[in-house]
Structures are given as structure tokens and as C-alpha cells.
Amino acid sequence: MKIIVDAFGGDNAPLEILRGCRRAADKLGVSVVLAGPEDEIKACAKENKLSLEGMEILHAASIFQMEYEPVTILREHNDTSMAAGLKALAGQGCDASYDAFVSAGSTGALLVGATLVVKRIRGVRRAAIAAVMPTGERPFVLLDAGANSECTAEMLGHFALLGSTYARHVLGTQNPRVALVNNGTEENKGGPLQQEAYALLKAKANINFIGNIEAREIPLGGCDVAIADGFTGNVILKLYEGMGKLFMGGLKGLFLGSPMGWLAALPAAPGLLKLKKQMDYKEYGGAPLLGINGVVIKAHGSSDAKAIFHAIRQAKACVEGGIVESIKEGLKA
Amino acid sequence: MKIIVDAFGGDNAPLEILRGCRRAADKLGVSVVLAGPEDEIKACAKENKLSLEGMEILHAASIFQMEYEPVTILREHNDTSMAAGLKALAGQGCDASYDAFVSAGSTGALLVGATLVVKRIRGVRRAAIAAVMPTGERPFVLLDAGANSECTAEMLGHFALLGSTYARHVLGTQNPRVALVNNGTEENKGGPLQQEAYALLKAKANINFIGNIEAREIPLGGCDVAIADGFTGNVILKLYEGMGKLFMGGLKGLFLGSPMGWLAALPAAPGLLKLKKQMDYKEYGGAPLLGINGVVIKAHGSSDAKAIFHAIRQAKACVEGGIVESIKEGLKA
Questions:
Q1: What percentage of chain A has pLDDT greater than the value 70?
Q2: What residues of A are in contact with residue B258 (Cβ under 8 Å)?
Q3: Which of A228, A201, A242, A211 is nearest to A145 (CA)?
Q4: Best exposed site among A306, A315, B11, B258 by fewest CB in 10 Å?
Q5: pLDDT for the residue B136
Q6: Mean pLDDT in residue range A113-129
Q7: What Rg, from alpha-carbon coordinates, does chain B have?
Q8: What ipTM score was computed for the predicted complex, to two decimals?
Q9: How far apart are the first and last CA of chain B?
Q10: What's the pLDDT at B128?
Q11: Proportion of chain A above pLDDT 90, given as a percent
Q12: How far is CA A124 from the centre of its chain?
């Protein structure tokens, strides 16, 4: 399996990306292909004594900067590591065949590029960003986490199929419970979008729609797939992250704030580490762009080596789970 | 100061309500007026050996049940404790004068009733539910937390004034930072509602508008007043609650899950209690209905005595802070 990684996406590129790729190449049994300026990749690896053994380089002359407009990716910035990775995944301009692309770069550009180059699966109106997030029990998938600020009920219907397929085939959740994020559980809750989407989801035979969910129940494991428009989904994703930071900060202060703190932390250490691990977004990989005709993973912009490693692990799981084929089959049904 | 409390609102009425009122009457120097069926209030107090000394009873024949349609409050359910409290606050059918009303009953009915009976402040198009919520530092106000699923930019502009006035006059925040919840910080982010509201808020001279805020920054203390439509605000409010439960549950499991747990908890206990207190919505009182021409506080439906006590404390702070008059002055400016 060949997974292309954008060596120049995100705040900590290229060093942390290369470190994550090294770990993935060593531990996951996948071939990692580094997209970016060849000289810089080699110089960074050399300087940091990182071996590139077993990894290919997909040369690209430049880097897509965060301040660029997403829509320019295939015009002015067609020679960037992100554009090169997407084109290679789509089989453009190369003989080799690749299985997935991972980038911690601009979300907007990745979405535009993936849609235009790798293209959408036939029958999907818009691709969605699917975020895999923790609960007290097993993780759940939230989509759309921010690709489409404004959505139609039909789009939410597609998202339900995409998310359900991901939960089943990649996370291994049996008969995933799909819920619509709403301001109450009753059928008539929400605005016209939610009411129309409710009726549509209820009528779908190939998903396990359990009705509306209030945001309170999401972190407590109330559903396996949470469906929302991209604006609401983005608020949920980011609030999750902020609340995690707040609590982890509070926990840290708890133990380090007093002279007895270290003493207190000692017996609690295994549990603390478990809680921290459970709440750490880096453990969950990135956010797959679902609805795209190929495996494309958006890693968090501030990804370090661990986050990149898990995003590559997730890409591998998507390929092995046959996510793209499964979505195609689901759309036919 | 006379504060009317709906003795029959919420999941734990009437006993927990009476207990909270007893504590408030003893500790806050306010006169508590209990709205509800007089016989039942007296019977509950007697059975539980609770003194009603110094408290008045505002008799109402029946109780507004959660399953009733909110709009029926002034028609079929005009004789309920909630309707009686609102009418007394508005000075209808009584000679006495009251300063505030607190209820843990149906949010929808309280909003409809307050709007029709106590009425809106002239110039305010729609009242908003303002939730006071914790951050790592001082609390912030979120509005609208659920009164209006669909909003116009003009409404969001009013909410900014309402929330800003509350933060200044009740929470004591100097020059409160008002932010618009959005999916990015740039001016052009969000849909038409956010873009229009941004322009409107930027042009307002009497609020300290700091621009868009991403949900990630809210719990970290990024603003003092968070403005959102009622759908988004409701998602934020409820996710806050759910995340709090998740973390507190995790923390509990941490210490109680192992034989060494109790030992670990001992030195950390003061810090743990502080963190728990900081995250406990009950400490923050209820949610004032801002824009109403009187002080009306919606307490959490599952309020216990502590939550009711804090909601009464908050009602007192609203009266003392002259919130209604301050909003009127702000609207004139």
C-alpha cells in the first residue's frame, strides 16, 4: 500500500511530518511517499539524522501557504506538494498507483483540490469533512465538520450514508446509530433544514437512523454518526477541542499547583494517562474527506509526529476497509 | 426585594425548590415568594420539616406540565404557578410589587409567557436566553442559548447589546469583549447571517466588538459575550454540559477505579473540588431572559436546591445591577 503524505502541510512541517512518516513506515507496513521539494526533504532528514530508507519522494517545486486562497490550488499553485499529491492519487502524470493522500495543510485547498482532481464519487453532491472524535465509550464520526457552511437536507442525507459507511467499515462499529444534531429530540424540532432532513433520514432504509440528538448526549456516546450542517459541525468540532484543552489544563493545574501535587499524581498516573489519551485528538488520526473518489485525510494543522502517524494509520484503515467502494455500493442501494 | 419562585417548575419540584428558597431567604436577604398550590406547598414543607417563615405564598391552582405546548400558557394554563408568577411580576391582578421571577419549568412556556405578560423592552425585537458559563478564567455570557432557532442579523445586534449590558452590570466585567461565533476569525467567514451580523456589530459604537470567535477559544476565555443564533447557541450550551459530564465522569473513574484511587484523591482533593465547582453549572445560576421588561430567570430543568439558590442569587444581582434599566439606556444610545 502506497500512502502519499504532504511533507510540507501544517504548522510543524517538514520535520514533524517526516518523523511521523518514519514511524509509520517502520510500524505500519505501508510505503510512505513524501510529497514536496526533494532537496528540502533530504536536507531536513539529513540535518535531523532521520533515515528516509524505504520512502519515495514525489517531487513538487513549492508549498501551498495557509494564506493562499483555496481556489488557487490548481491555478497559481499547481506545483505545490498538496497539488502534486492529489494529482498522483488521481493517477495524473505518473505511472505509479497510489492508495491514499494525507495532508495537514489548508483544509479549504485540500477540499477544493480533492474535489477537482480526485473528484467526487458519482451521486454525491458535496464531499464532507468527517471528524472522528472521542466519547466516554467508543469514538463517533461527526460530519460535516466544516466543508459546507450551508447545506440542504439532501446533502445531510448523503452525509448520513458516508458517515455510516465509515463507522461500519473503518471503525468497525456494527449497525452504527446515525443521529441528526438538533435543539431537541422531538421530530418537529429545529429549523426547516432539520425538519426536512429528519423526514429524509427516517425514510432511508440503509442507515440506522435513531432520530434527533441534543449536543449534550454526543460526548456521552449517544450516537455513532452525528449529522450536522458544516457550520454547526465546525462549532462542535472546535468546542470539543477547546473543552478538552480547558479540562486538561485544569487537571494539570490540579497536580502541579501544589507542593503535594506530584505526590497526588503518582498513584493516579495510569488513569490520568488513559484519560489524556482518550481525549487526545492526535490519537484519532485526521478527518477523512468523505464522498471523494479516493482516500484523502486532512490531518490537524498543528499535527506533530504522533498525529501524522495516526493519520497515516487511519488512511491505511480506510484503504483496507474499502471505504470508497463501500460508499459506491451504498449509493447504489 | 421580592423574588417570586415557581415552586412547581422542574424535575425536582417542589421539595428541592423549597429547600433552595429556604437557603436563599436565610442567606441572601431577599423576600422569597413561592408560586403554586398553597396546600401542596404547605404539605411538602411540613412533611420535610422545612420552615416557610418569612416566605409568602402566591397561590396558583395548577402546574404547567412539561408536555404542554408552550403557547397554551396564557390560554388553557392561565392558572398555573408559572402564569401566576409572570402576571404578578407584571403587576397584574395584585397590589404588591415584585422584582423578579425564577422558574425551572418549561423554557418555551416561560419565554412565551414572559414575552406576552411581562412584555419585551421597547426596541428589542426578540428576547434571548442568556446562559452564563464557565471558562478557565471568568465566566462568559452566551446568547441566544436557544430562544430563537432562526435569527436575523438585526437580532444578533440586539443580543450583543443585551449580553454586553449583562456582563457589565451583573457579572461586573469591565468593557466586556463581544464576539460573534463563527467558523473562522476572518471577516468574510460564515454564511450570510454571520457576514451581515459582523458588519452590523462592527458599526455599533456602544459595544466592544472583538470580531469573530471560533468555538475552540470560547472555553479558554476568548470573549466575555458570545453571540450566536439560538440553534448554534443551544448546541454550544448543551455540548458544554455534556463535555462537563464526560470529564467529571472520567475524573471520578480515575480516582475510584483503582484500589490506590482514594489515596491519590486525598492530596488532590482541594484542587479537585475547585475544578468541579468551576465546571458546575449549578454554581452559575440560571439563564436570564434578556430583552424582557423585567427580571426573569430560567433555572435548569434538573435544578436541585443549590441550583435554585444560585438562580435566586442571580435574580438579586440582576435587580441590583439594574439590568432592565441599563438595557433601556443602551437602546437609546
A1: 93
A2: 267, 270-271
A3: A228
A4: B11
A5: 77
A6: 96
A7: 20
A8: 0.90
A9: 29
A10: 97
A11: 83
A12: 18
- Contact criterion met (CB below 8 Å) for B112 and B100: no
Q: Is the predicted pLDDT of residue A157 greater than 70, yes or no?
A: yes
Residues of A in Cβ contact (< 8 Å) with B190: 149, 231
Nearest-angstrom CA–CA distance, A85 and A89: 6
Q: What distances in angstroms separate CA B290 from CA A17, B162, B302, one per listed residue?
A: 49, 6, 22
Distance CA A307, CA A53 (A): 21
| Rounded Cα distance, A291 and B56, in Å | 63
Nearest to A25 by CA among A58, A62, A50: A50
Size of interface A-B (CB pairs under 8 A): 160
Task: Give the integer Cα–Cα distance in Å for A250 and A254.
Answer: 6
Burial (CB < 10 A; 0-12, 13-18, 19+), residue A78, is middle
pLDDT at A283 over 80: no
Nearest by CB to residue A272, choosing from B215, B239, B254, is B254
Contact A272 B255 (CB under 8 A): no
User: In the predicted model, is pLDDT for residue A67 greater than 70?
Assistant: yes
Q: What is the dihedral of CA A116, A122, A125, A127, to 10 degrees?
A: -60
Contact between chains at A268 and B261 (C-beta distance less than 8 A):
yes
CB of B144 closer than 8 Å to CB of B287: no
The C-alpha atoms of residue A132 and residue B326 are separated, in whole angstroms, by: 45
Q: Which residues contact A91 (CB under 8 A, 6 or more apart)?
A: A97, A98
DSSP assignment, residue A11?
T
pLDDT, mean of residues A173-189? 96
Contact A255 B236 (CB under 8 A): no
Strands of A131-133's sheet in order across: A131-133, A140-143, A225-227, A177-181, A208-213
The answer to whether the bond into B14 is cis (omega within 30° of 0) is yes
Residue whose entry in the numeric block shows the C-alpha cell 404547567:
B64
CB–CB of B232 and A230 under 8 A? no
Flag whether pLDDT at A278 surpasses 80.
no
A16 contact partners, CB below 8 Å, separation of at least 6: A10, A303, A304, A305, A308
| Alpha-helical runs (H) found in B114-182 | 153-169
pLDDT at residue A271 is higher than 70: no
- Round to whole Å and give the CA distance between B88 and A139: 50
Regions of chain B where pLDDT drops below 70? 253-273, 275
Q: Which of B234, B242, B267 sits opposite A260 (nearest CB)?
A: B267
The grid coordinates of residue A235 equal 462549532
Q: What is the DSSP string of A141-158?
A: EEE-SSS-SS--HHHHHH
Give mean pLDDT, residues A91-119. Answer: 95
pLDDT band for A264, please (50, 70, 90 cuts).
low
- CA–CA gap between residue A311 and residue B11 (Å, rounded): 45
Mean pLDDT value across chain A:
92
Predicted local confidence at residue A260, as pLDDT = 59
